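EI: anyone free to look at a 409-residue chain?
SC: sure, send it
EI:
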Amino acid sequence: MKISVLKETRSGESRVAASPETVKKYVALGADVMVQMGAGDLARFADADYVEAGAQISPSAADAAQGADIILKVQAPSTEELRVFGRGSKLIGVLAPHGDEDALGSYARLGIDAFAMDLMPRITRAQSMDVLSSQSNLSGYKAVIDASAYYGQALPMMMTAAGTIAPAKVFVMGAGVAGLQAIATARRLGAVVSATDVRFAAKEQVESLGATFVTVDEEAMKEAETEGGYAKEMSDDFKKRQAEFVAEHIKKQDIVITTALIPGRPAPQLVSDDMVAGMKPGSVIVDLAAEQGGNVSLTRPGEAIEINGVTILGFFNVPGRLPADASSLYARNVYNFISAFWDNETQDFAVDWEDDIIKGVALTRDGAITHPSFAIAETPAPADEPVAVEVEASAEAPTDETSDDNKDA
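SC: here you go
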């Protein structure tokens, strides 16, 4: 079984799909591992480290992919890269299939079995494979670090002989994995933190981290919450009152971090032009949804801008700004996925196509698009058939000390 690790070619991507640690584990399973030369350079993994772990180094993507059974990537391969893939090879990566029908068609046409790690189902068995959680965790941390770098003052309260410095006020919008980590990091740095979320169930998690949960009407949120802890659609009156409440709250904040994302859809707008205009000069906004259009109306995706003294950060690929850790966590997610279906007797990646995990991530198989979310254009569902809506699972609040078993969750 040959596993190939290709160098990322997309602009701004600094991560790599396998670390020396996971290469050693693949070799222990009985696989041959080929790593493209320089694949780990930006993540501070030298070719020599991969060789020491048991891999062979290939001079090019074409050479690395030749005869490969499994090809590991972080981001989806370009059209040029796909040309070197062999028919029947299995591609594993963060393939972002929503809105990219051309890529899905290419995988099917070329006979590539594609597995999208970003579609990993949120079930207990798949926690250690959950790429979105492991990378979002780093995004939440980095958002606070980036904000503090652009914010011209200290975050904690400081009492000095020359006087007292007041602590910074940080407001986090969204208490998923990234939001909770942003809260925890800002609290560690000594800021006064508040947060909000559409799920009232997030209140306990927010408060467990020492932050204040803010909303215009707790009773209305409780009534709208389902038994599973998710939020139903709120009334127009609630939405209006909440927007007005948030606008007033934002005026008093020094740093605002937005984290709301909806898979396959543009990011919801949380902060309007008027809200930004109401913030004091020197304030910083970090928009973690910039790659999907942004939660802030004035965000310029990929840029750091200043408008009337307010800095708005809309960086792309925030986990990639911590390439070593992001690569290590991603590599473990991928290894956990492959090893879960590894047959030790045949030393083969034995895919169980009926397994819930495989059903969740498999896009193509044997030259056809098989994932129900993307094959619908070919086989439309009956008009009276109900449409399933995927809702992000609640995240556990991070702590300073986490076990090896749940670091990625």
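EI: Confidence is low (pLDDT under 50) at residues 377-409.
SC: 👍
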